[in-house]
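User: Hey, my collaborator sent me this sequence without any context and asked if I could get a structure. I don't really work with proteins. Can you help?
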Amino acid sequence: MTPLEYCHRVLAEAGTQLAATLPPGRAGRLLALSRVGDMMAPIGDSVPAVRPGWNLALRVCLEREDDEDSEPPADSTALAAWAERFFADCDQIALAQLALAQCELGRLQLQQRGPRTFVAWPTSRRLSPEQRERADFDWWSAHTARHSVPQLAALLAERPEMRPLLGHTGPLFSDGAGPVMSDPSVERYYRRLGQVHVARFACQHSYPADAAIGGETLGRYAEILALLIGWLLCEHDRRAADGGPVPSPWNEPTVISALAEAFNADQLVIGRALQHFILDRDNTAYHSALPGRGAPPLIRLRAGQVIPSAVGLLSEPLIFLARELRRRHAEEYHNNARLREDVFRQDLYRLVSDKRFVVSPRSVQLRRSGKPRTDIDALVFDRKMGALGVFELKAQDPFAGSVEERQRQRDNFFHANRQVSAILEWVQRSGPDDLVLRFDERTARRFHVQKVYVFVLGRYLAHFSGGPEPDRRAAWGSWPQVLQIVEDGSLNSGRRDPLGTLFARLRDPSSAGSNADRRTIMVGDFRLQIFPSFAAVRAEEDRAVPP
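Assistant: No problem. I've predicted the 3D structure and written it out in structure-token form, which is a compact way to encode the shape of the chain:
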């Protein structure tokens, strides 16, 4: 048995032992876990972090089938203490699983040092693709959230004025019918608060608002999410004032009725749309493949009842939604993927909105002998410098849930090598001025292209290990990398050659980051130490040897 196989066996045993610690009563367990998890999600202006073991903890609880209607232990303090310990164990198992996935991909070298003691170190000093993707995404999330700070701060300043009015609200989604909020000013306030929070999640998917998947548009899903967030924040304020526990279960038919009334929509349609925000036994294995990412907005407690999760609603709800849409409606999700290219293109063009730049309104198709050769997703011409930026845009999904999914992403991304070759061959044969002519005849008559820069941009990731080498005639990078370059003024209209600067910065290997991760993962008596290098492993072992 290899060290990697042995580690997987130990983690499987640990998972079995963890499941054996579950107290009776699924509903009680889930409520306890939700309340402990939501303690990590401050209800304020910050985006809460998702614990690595959050999705795993929910999966272990949901997949146990023998006690759906059992009564939970009467001692709520003991149940809360169990939830804390359970979470800590799930966190360690999830971190170990992430490390072993890196070992499988060859990015960590694993060696055994004792019966249940292992060490690992990276095979490269550069960040792994997963580390770079997570770092880029976290930066982009913070960058997007900063744009909402003034509007959110203004709404939070009004919050104390709303709290005295909460005594006039009806029961919030308790069993049976009844108004959600009887005071219109309260309803409007919390709805706006939810909408501001949703605006902070814009980087979590790349479909246009009018893209329809699963019976509703992405815009309608966002509106549903805004109401769910607003209602959660309202309940938090109201129940914090009277000392009640948060979260408390919501009656699902009442939630559906309130949503249908808010949108003047059919309850059956809204009910189907709401299912895409709910984690239950059927989809928990799928979503638990992303440790620390895409926590569920709602959790199925029992038939007709859900728990709103502050962690899920206020961190990455649109990642959960996008993955659930893909799980339920794979063909429809895939067929709509082409719409993401235009969103990506418009985001790019907002960075070059100065009048010195001319852009193509749509993709440009190149032909040879009357047959399509390739197409160019976006073109930006700098009239001042005579520089033409040619962009291939790859609008993939973030955070692959498996090794196979990541390999498919890699293969699709490196298909751009063929596109780069085809574009440069076409430019050499036909001349770059003809590209400008294809989208702006007036500019093509007055200006000539002096330099062509080719870019390949991935929406979330652009750096993979394995597979073909990227064509070095192009600059390859992720969209968050571009935004970081733009933030320091590199694309300002006052720059001499903004496109050339972007090209050079994306090709600079010093921007790749350094792999300096060091941590210890403990699962029972299993110990995995991850070092930043093999030299660090040797140094640690030398210190452990007595003189």
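In plain terms: Residues 469 and 507 are 14 Å apart (CA to CA). You can pass these tokens on to your collaborator as they are.
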